[in-house]
Amino acid sequence: MKGRVEVHRLACPALAGNALGDPDERTCVVYLPPGYDRGGDRFPLVVLLHAFLGSAEGWLNVSPFAPTVPERLDLLIADEGLPACIGVFPDGWNALGGSQWTNSPATGRYRDAVVQDVLAWVEAAFRTVRRREARAVLGRSSGGHATWELVRHHPEVFGHIASHSGDAYFEYCYLGDFPRVAGALLRAGGVVPWWQPFCVRARQTKMAGDDHAVINALAMAAAYSPKAGEPLGLELPFEPETGELRPRVWARWLAEDPVRFVAADVRPFAALETVFIDCGSRDEFGLRWGARMLARTLAQAGAPVTHEEYDDGHMGTSYRFDRSLRLLLPRLARS
Asked: Does the predicted TM-score (pTM) go above 0.90?
C-alpha cells in the first residue's frame, strides 16, 4: 500500500446513553492517500458505511486472493492514477448486529454519530475539503440504504452517493422472512426468550438455522418501529401468535423504504452531483428490483444517475466499490 491506513478511537456523544448499552467510543478507520504528509493540500472525503453484521474493523478483514476495500481505494489512486481522497470507515455495529445507521430510541443516534461526531472529528483532524461537493457517501446493503437516509435528512452534507445492493422495496427484501421469523419466535416463546439463548449460542459456537433471519428482523424493527416498553424496545411488524401483518407497524417500515421516500420528495436526490446504484442480478434478497425502481425515479427526475446490474448475488461483492469509486473520485470537488 502506497497510502496508509490508521485506526482511531473517537468519542461519539450522539451514542451516549443508548438503550442497548453499546459503547459511545468507537473505532474509526481512516485511509490517507500517497503524498498526504507532503505539502498542505486538502482532499475530498469519501465515507464508506458497512453492511448489517459489519463493523469498522471489518473493512480490514483479509480475504484470500482479494484486496480489502481500503487496499482497493489505494490501488485506484496509486496505481490507476485516479484523483486522491481521504477515506473514512465509521462503526455502526450494535448489540442487534447493526443500526441501519438510523436515529432510533431503541438503538441510538447512529445517523447523528456519522454527521455530527465522525465528520466533525475527521474534518478537524485531517485536511479535508469542507464542501458538500467534495463529500461522497458509499455503502453496501444496510450501508447502501443509509446513503439514501443521509441525503434525505442531510442534503447539505453529501453531494455524491453510491448505493451497492442497498435495502429497498421492503416487500421483497424483508417480507419473505417474516413467516420464518414468526415461527422461530413462537417456538422460543417470544423476543427475549429467543434473544437470550441466541446471544449465548452465537458467542459459544455460531449462528444457526434461522438465526440470521430473526436477528435481521429484530434489528430492522429496532430501526424502523421502535416502541418504548416492548421487549428490546421494538415493535414487531406482525402478530407474534398468528404471523398476521400489523398494518400500522408495517406502514412505519415502509416510510423508511428508499423507493417510497425518494419518490415522495425527489428534490434532494435530483440535486446530487453523482448517484451510483448497483445490484447483483442474482441478489438473494431481491434487491435488484428496488435498485431498478430507484434508478427509474431518479432518471425521470433528471438526476445524474448511473445504474448497473452484474452477474452475482448479495455476498462477497466488495469488488463493486472499484466501479463506484472510479466514477466518483474524478467528480469530487478539490477546493
From this structure: yes
